[in-house]
Amino acid sequence: MSSFLARVWAQKQIAYCPHTTPSGETWAKVKEGSCTSAGNAGGTTLVDTGGDSGTVDTYNGLYWVELLDGVNMEEMRRIVEDDGSGALTVETAFSNQVANGVAYRIWKSPDPVVVATVGGTLSTTQINMDARDEVDDYWKGYYMVPVHGACKGESPKLISAFQTTGGGNNGEFTFAAFIATPVGGDVFSLRKFIDVEIDPSTLGRDYTPRPGNRLGMSQGDGVLGARNGTATFNLPIRPSGTLAAADAEATAPEASGLMQAGGLEEVIQSSVTVGVGNASASAVDIETGDRENLAVGGIVIWNGNARRITSLDDGDVGVDTVHVSPAFPSIPTAGDVVYATRMYKKSTAPGDLLGCVIEVEVDGIRHTMTGCKGNVALTDAPTPELAFTLEVDHWHKDPTAAGYIAGAAYSTVAPVLSHDREFYLDTTATSISGFTATPGSVATPKTIQGAVGINGRAGFEITGYSCGATFDELLDASSATLPQELRLTARTAKAILAIFGSASMVCAVSLPVSRLVGQTTTKDMEGMVGTPNVVAAQDAGVAANGDDYDKMPDFAIHIS
Asked: Is 269 helix (H, G, I), strand (E, B) or coil?
């Protein structure tokens, strides 16, 4: 079977990318008008010479057109060519020719795209594009997916992504080579690919039936309302598989762009070097100035062992110090690299978190969901998974298969395994089973604001958390069980650290302050005494950090 047929019928491919601003997660109405003449017979153009279309390529890529009446009513298509004189060409043909007089509406899409600059650098490995607002290399590791043009069907990986170059108005993207050469005005979407399954049958639309008369025999259509749905999928946890060198940022894992959509703020740490004279396994001296590479509450890895940062000391002209708990099993020596991970933590400003775009193809029909935001949970299994439940702000279907095959873009890194696990209550290693954890993020619709919003709301925002975890603590039946039960029923606050994997393959969950919120009852678990625990994260307070104080995250997931 060809890879294309496997993709269509197995239906286990999704593509995603994060939105770039909270205000840009929803569709914005740009203009309305009526066609002044018929489009071409193939249904790929519409014409309004009386409309204000700006200059050539104004509406390329980021803008969509929706037909408001006629035989193509409610169909939406992406604009890929704007001739500047009122003729617009769309990515996928409408079902029928667009007739003279048809009313239309143009929307600005929240799906980030790149438009190649006319007259800029254009080669098979590099393009100049319209400048963007993200930090440099924000899109590094994503894939360039041509929406139209000679490069369509290819999807090279971005090597570097500078949003502006030389103080000019253009950015510069460098990537693995296209076969064809892009031309000015070409449109590219940005995607990462994951080998999981989403069922788009959960996508729906509100419908208000036409009220009946007193005989209950009314005829006619009702009213279609907002589009809605929920995107749910379970993703095996695949770390990056690469530890960053000293002073380099931790490599992004496969799911990096999805974690904010699950209600967690990303903190990117950089690796550090052990300083001369270090004599501690828990208060590790690092080179001067390296403290700024790390974050309180983050996870660092030394000699394959992952540990939580409890505080950071600024040594001024002397060495800095990173305090970890539990202590490393031995003392790191000068010149050793303490490797960084990426932290996804409960946010102190959840309203600023970014949702994502998700694209899934089923039987040759693409479903694109925008403004996706909700919750993520770590669920225990032989291969632990990140379970996403995301509210969909808007969705649309395209009756044409995607112009790429992303098999080569899937991560080949093996997922972490449940049996390769350490679990700590404070600094004491404890045997457990059945571990789950979640920030309990709550996504709430924003109220509509002017022209922003296509579904009677201006997207979703994270409005609250209910962070917690569950696990069965395993005790030897011959040990003193009663003191253990007394400790639990006293509801003593305990720091939880669950570590899956080691070295470059680590996923950890941290609840620095957690309390039992359910009554424990021991149970027999194949010869062991098991005590089920349901815990809730509480305010973890602050940690000393030189002259400043850093907030210790109440809840965080860490991935190397």
From this structure: coil
Determine the structural domain holding residue 47 and report its residue range.
28-108
Q: Read off the pLDDT of residues 489-537 as tens digits, 9 standing for 90 and up.
A: 556 788 999 999 988 899 999 999 998 887 666 666 555 666 778 899 9
Per residue in 229-246, is it b (16+ CB within 10 Å) or e — as a string?
A: bbbebebbbbbbbebbeb
Q: Are residues 465 and 400 in the same domain?
A: yes
Identify residue 520 by its one-letter amino acid code: T
Lowest mean pLDDT among 23-37, 352-366, 404-418, 541-555: 541-555
pTM summary value: 0.90
pLDDT of residue 118: 78
Total domains present in the chain: 3
Q: Which helix (H) or strand (E) holds 9?
A: helix 3-10
Question: CA 516 to CA 485: how far, in whole Å?
Answer: 12
Cβ neighbours of 314 (radius 10 Å): 17
Structure tokens belonging to residue 27: 């569709």
Instruction: For residue 447, give the DSSP letter.
Output: P
Q: Which residues of 118-131 are buried (b: 16+ CB within 10 A; e: fewer)?
A: eebbbebebbbbbe
Taking each continuous run of H as one helix and of E as one strand, the counts in the chain are 3, 41
Integer Cα distance of 342 and 372 in angstroms: 22
- At 506 the three-state DSSP class reads strand
Same domain, 81 and 138: no
* Residues 408 and 435 reside in one and the same domain: yes
